[in-house]
Amino acid sequence: MSRTKKDDKPAGWRKAEIIEAAAQCFMERGYHATTVDDVATRLNATKGRIYHHYATKTDLFFDVHRTGMDRLFSAIRPVHDRGGPARERLVAMLLAHARAMLEHHTYETVVAQGVQVHRFDQTTEGQRQTMRDLIATRDTLEQLFKSTLEDAIAEGTLAARDVSIAVKVLLGGLQWSIFWYRPQPGETEADRVALAEKMVAPLVAGLRAAD
């Protein structure tokens, strides 16, 4: 039997596809301008498909945000946990963060929108709590960098500084790539590694070694 309705998708059609389509829409249009209709159109489905999984656009946004954060943690935590000299570990974490920003550009752009969504008056209390939880997750990620920088200062390989401000500047420098980076046709993983190294180099140069 031929399929003519948008809803009539193969059985393997998964929730992950909704999240992927929504990430693209949120990246291209921003949270305010994106509608559930936009996501449905990208999927060639009806809104009912999306509302089956998500009560509101905001709830869908949260899952995209959560996916982006999960990918950052997956890239950075193994580097943080492997031990070794703190300065070397910090540089490796920055490189891992930079590569994740490039490889998951769509999702990380949505993550950067998260704080703005937190301020939207129209969200429910439950949604505001979810956003607070997501922001707490971001704080946890930031703490991984803070503790590593503190260790490097303690071991004497980096000069003493305001750790909180330094880490915010480091991560902010990498996150700025959402504004200027666009994946190029034919771009390879090696290309992204090289670009990540160029992104991290000036940041590391600003971390003065201890005298």
Automatic annotation (TrEMBL):
Span of domain HTH tetR-type: 12-72
GO molecular function terms attached to this record: DNA-binding transcription factor activity; transcription cis-regulatory region binding
PROSITE patterns referenced in this protein's UniProt entry, alphabetically: HTH_TETR_2 (PS50977)
Transmembrane segments: none
Pfam short name (any one): TetR_C_24
Domain of life: Bacteria
Chain residues forming the annotated DNA-binding region: 35-54
Keyword annotations from UniProtKB, A to Z: DNA-binding, Transcription, Transcription regulation
Family matches, as InterPro entries: Homeodomain-like_sf (IPR009057), HTH-type_TetR-like_transc_reg (IPR050109), HTH_TetR (IPR001647), KstR2_TetR_C (IPR041490), Tet_transcr_reg_TetR-rel_C_sf (IPR036271)
Name of the protein in its database record: Putative TetR-family transcriptional regulator
